[in-house]
C-alpha cells in the first residue's frame, strides 16, 4: 500500500517507498524492531562538513545493504548542496524485482534521490 495515497503499489515504486522508510526511520524508533532504520536522521541537522557527508554516504550504504534485498547500491553522489541547507544525494544501483524472494536473476538499473520534498518541508526519497 502506498503510504501517501493509500493506493496499491508494486515493483520499483514499492522498492522506492521501502527505501524511504528505511532511510528516514531512526534506529530505535520502531517498537519490536528497534534495530531497524538508518543513521541518516541522526546526521540530518549536523554541520555539512566533509566528515558528515562521508558519514551520510556510509549510513545510506549500510542501511540499504542491510534492509532492502530488492536494491543493490552501486553509487552515491551529492548532487545538490547549498546555503539554504538543502542537500540531495543521488543513488544508482540495481533493482531486483524478485529480490525480496531471494531471486537475483533479473535486474534493472535504477536511480533515485534522497533530498527535500517539493515544498522543502521534509525529506523524501524519489525515483529519478
Automatic annotation (TrEMBL):
UniProt superkingdom = Bacteria
Which parts of the sequence belong to the IraD/Gp25-like domain?
A: 17-81
Any Pfam family hit: GPW_gp25
Which InterPro entries does the entry link to? IraD/Gp25-like
This chain's protein is named: GPW/gp25 family protein
Q: Which organism is it from?
A: Camelimonas fluminis
Q: What is the lineage of its organism?
A: Bacteria, Pseudomonadati, Pseudomonadota, Alphaproteobacteria, Hyphomicrobiales
